[in-house]
Design goal:
two-stranded antiparallel ribbon; single chain; five-stranded mixed β-sheet; globular; 8 helices; alpha/beta; Trna Endonuclease, Chain: A, domain 1
């Protein structure tokens, strides 16, 4: 199995068309050289990077980093961090469960990670197959932490139209105005 650094080096060779091909492969469950979850995770981060966002690739935070001790125990595993040119900063969580919708666990996990950070940062959960009812409900009640939800159909729209940063801004605006973390971007964005 490849390392995170090897996955990063590999995905950074991908242009927009390559990401669309990878997206097609993810959707049929055929991602040679990529575990399905990794392919989705790195595709999302690369798409933001191609649109000019700063990307911090998957990383861990250890107990030692939190406490100032020598401990190397993992406290958090972060799928990614994105900071857009217009100042939006978010932690990224990606879920590819095949045809199964993401339940509330990734939202609860991300909410806890956000509790330790500045209120200026928010979370985004990308789920290729969408979200269960309990997940949608929890996302609406995570305040003061904000967690936006992206479905696979939105990923496709954003990939085809180069709208990851624009879509993120639109979803964030709607969430601030209406408290709806699951606003669905569309061609009209």
């Amino acid at each position: 199995m490849a390392t995170d650094e090897e996955y990063r080096e590999r995905i950074e060779q991908y242009a927009r068309g390559d990401l669309l091909d990878l997206w097609g492969a993810i959707n049929v469950g055929d991602t040679p050289g990529w575990p399905a979850g990794k392919a989705f995770e790195y595709l999302i981060l690369r798409a933001f990077q191609l649109e000019g966002a700063y990307v911090n690739w998957p990383y861990t935070v250890t107990i030692g980093e939190l406490t100032g001790s020598e401990s190397r125990e993992i406290a958090e595993q972060i799928d990614g961090f994105v900071h857009t040119e217009n100042g939006l900063a978010c932690l990224i969580e990606c879920k590819n469960y095949g045809e199964e919708k993401a339940n509330l666990e990734p939202i609860a996990k991300l909410r806890n990670q956000l509790l330790r950070r500045s209120p200026a940062i928010f979370g985004v959960v990308f789920s290729r197959s969408g979200f269960t009812g309990p997940a949608l409900l929890l996302a609406r009640f995570t305040a003061p932490q904000t967690i936006l939800l992206w479905t696979g159909s939105e990923v496709e729209i954003a990939l085809r139209n180069r709208w990851f940063c624009k879509g993120l801004m639109e979803k964030y605006r709607v969430c601030l105005a209406k408290g709806t973390p699951d606003y669905h971007i569309s061609i009209e964005v």
